[in-house]
Inverse folding.
């Protein structure tokens, strides 16, 4: 028996399930354009979407977790809801407002959650003049810090010279982030940022930094794109900033970079 055109009024609410969509028993030509409304589809689960499986049959995409996004899984596989891919967001993990501190330590939150971590340091002032700022890392949450494993290299500029000097060390006791910070003038201080790449990796560890500050005799100094590696490969989970002598004040913020 030939099928006649099906009108909307002749279809009961919720009568058409996803299993019946595109069924060969009902050809496209037998259904009028715009004839099937949402009300005529079978009830489903809130948040599911209709797709077609590898065999070309209708199927439902399972409900995703809040904030997840619909992601293609390529040819022959249904899409799924997944966590959004990394977008470069900075996620603030901890803020330390140091005041005459012997060191500033981040001893939690540095793990495999993020591939990269970044510390911003602002309004940095040592307790005396011509004081260097060092960084060391720890593999035991800050119980102890490596004291002889740092290889690093960087360049140092000041406003009075057209020639750069170097910041470098081999199997050094620290990473030299800034040198000859000044305390003599209340309105002068320094700041910068340091990025640590994949500290949870058991491979060689690397990072970069840049600092700008008022140094010896009030001269403006910049350190650019230094890079360092721990001489012995291994993961670490704590970072310490410390002056070469005396104390340090300023604001330090730790971010996980997604």
């Amino acid at each position: 028996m030939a099928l006649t055109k099906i009108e909307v009024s002749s279809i009961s609410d919720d009568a058409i399930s996803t299993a019946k969509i595109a069924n060969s028993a009902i050809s496209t030509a037998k259904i009028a354009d715009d004839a099937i409304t949402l009300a005529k589809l079978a009830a489903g689960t809130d948040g599911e979407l209709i797709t077609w499986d590898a065999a070309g049959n209708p199927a439902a995409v399972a409900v995703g977790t809040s904030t997840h996004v619909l992601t293609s899984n390529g040819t022959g596989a249904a899409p799924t809801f997944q966590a959004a891919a990394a977008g470069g967001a900075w996620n603030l993990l901890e803020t330390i407002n140091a005041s005459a501190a012997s060191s500033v330590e981040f001893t939690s939150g540095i793990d495999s959650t993020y591939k990269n971590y970044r510390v911003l340091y602002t309004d940095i002032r040592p307790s005396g003049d011509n004081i260097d700022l060092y960084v060391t890392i720890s593999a035991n949450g800050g119980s102890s810090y490596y004291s002889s494993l740092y290889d690093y290299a960087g360049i140092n500029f000041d406003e009075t010279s057209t020639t750069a000097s170097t910041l470098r060390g081999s199997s050094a006791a620290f990473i030299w982030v800034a040198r000859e910070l000044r305390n003599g003038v209340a309105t002068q201080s320094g700041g910068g940022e340091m990025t640590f790449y994949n500290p949870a990796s058991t491979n060689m560890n690397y990072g970069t930094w840049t600092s700008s500050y008022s140094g010896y005799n009030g001269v403006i100094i910049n350190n650019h794109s230094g890079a360092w590696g721990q001489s012995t490969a291994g993961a670490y989970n704590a970072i310490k900033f410390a002056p070469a002598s005396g104390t340090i004040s300023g604001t330090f913020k730790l971010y996980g970079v997604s």
Summary: The CA atoms of residues 53 and 78 lie 6 Å apart.
